[in-house]
Here is the input.
Amino acid sequence: MFATAPILIASAPYESTMGLVQKIFYVHLPSAWMFLLGAIICGIASVRYLFKGDPRQDRLAWAAAELVVLFGAITLITGPLWARKAWGVWWQWDVRLTASLMGWMVAVAYLLLRKYGGPGSDKLAAGLALFGMANVPFVYISVNYWRTIHPTTNVVPTLPTSFGVPLWFSAGTFLLLFILLLRLRVRLEEQRARVDALYLSMDA
Here is the structure.
């Protein structure tokens, strides 16, 4: 799929006003979706961890937070590259951009807290993840209520087939990559937990 996506993107027509730079759209939007999806998964897993104390949910939340940082960075880099050429600005402190940056910083804070926070940081970070999840619908619907440089949410469903096919194919590719990375990262944390348990059993 990653071999096919660039071919579909290259063969997609140029947008009438933005030209070639519009093709960043096929990377920017799917990465933004994965960015928000990661925040939702991190938040839900954190809720389950807080109420049930299941370490598997904690590992899932940690893995998802790392993907929020990864795909959020892609989103926040590709967005200004597109905006500078399309709209003449690198950045505007509008609602969607500011909320997206805030969501990314929440995920960074989550990871820093988990790594350097010491005892009890897992539950504190889980509470922080809830704030990151609550920010997701705000990021999504903000363009419908405030004036921003982004189009409203009803634009994507009405895209012509020539633009829609490469977009949805790229989105599917990014989704599979997201799932793969999430599973690998959770598996790594599970292996670390087993190693820690072995060390504790040897000390006993």
